[in-house]
Structures are given as structure tokens and as C-alpha cells.
């Protein structure tokens, strides 16, 4: 998973499944998944199957906000045991390239 995850508790097996599913959601501009980009800060699933995804974007006013929202929602709701998805968009802490996984940095040529 991305190095920048802000979770303060271990993920449940279902939350791990959601994170795995989210690794399939690709930022079309960068060509890398949101998890490796460090844009997913947390996932939490309650007893009713509501999954809350706390995330950020690389920049405020990102033109892909609606596209990513729809893709995340569809992906999360596709995980067995998830009934609904809520996305908390935050800019705290602000995203930086240090939040990307090593894989993402290498893929984008930022390994130096």
C-alpha cells in the first residue's frame, strides 16, 4: 500500500479488500493508481456496510474530481459487503510527492 496512509488503526479484512480494490482506480493523467499515488488517506467500513473513503487530490480544482468520485464509488461498491460509499475529500494534510509509494516515484521518474 502507499506509504502515506494516515490511518491510525489497523484495517479490518473488509477495509483491506477495499484498499486492494482502490488500487485499481487509476488517475488518467498520471497513469498510476490512487493508492500508490498516496491520495487515499483512510478507509473505514461501519457495521451497515457504509465505506467512508478519506482522500485528497494532487491539486485543488482538479478537473478529474467527478470522474474519480464516480470510479471510486463504483469500485468500492463492487466489494462484497459494501452497501454504500461516502467520499471525504480533504486537503489536510496537503498532498506532496513524498506521499507516493516507491513504486509510483520510480514509475514517474522521481527516484533520484
Automatic annotation (TrEMBL):
It comes from Limosilactobacillus ingluviei. The keyword Transferase applies. Signal peptide: none annotated. Transmembrane segments: none annotated. PANTHER family: FE-S PROTEIN MATURATION AUXILIARY FACTOR YITW (PTHR42831). It holds the Pfam family FeS_assembly_P. Keywords: Methyltransferase, Transferase. This is N-6 adenine-specific DNA methylase YitW. The lineage of its organism: Bacteria, Bacillati, Bacillota, Bacilli, Lactobacillales. GO terms for molecular function: methyltransferase activity. It comes from the Bacteria.
Amino acid at each position: 500500500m502507499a506509504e502515506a496512509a494516515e490511518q491510525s488503526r489497523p484495517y479490518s479484512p473488509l477495509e483491506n479488500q477495499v484498499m486492494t480494490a482502490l488500487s485499481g482506480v487509476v488517475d488518467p493523467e498520471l497513469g498510476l493508481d490512487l493508492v500508490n499515488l498516496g491520495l487515499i488517506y483512510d478507509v473505514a467500513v461501519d457495521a451497515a456496510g457504509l465505506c467512508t473513503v478519506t482522500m485528497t487530490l494532487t491539486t485543488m480544482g482538479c478537473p478529474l474530481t467527478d470522474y474519480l468520485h464516480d470510479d471510486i464509488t463504483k469500485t468500492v461498491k463492487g466489494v462484497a459487503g459494501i452497501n454504500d460509499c461516502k467520499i471525504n475529500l480533504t486537503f489536510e494534510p496537503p498532498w506532496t510527492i513524498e506521499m507516493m509509494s516507491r513504486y509510483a516515484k520510480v514509475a514517474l521518474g522521481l527516484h533520484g
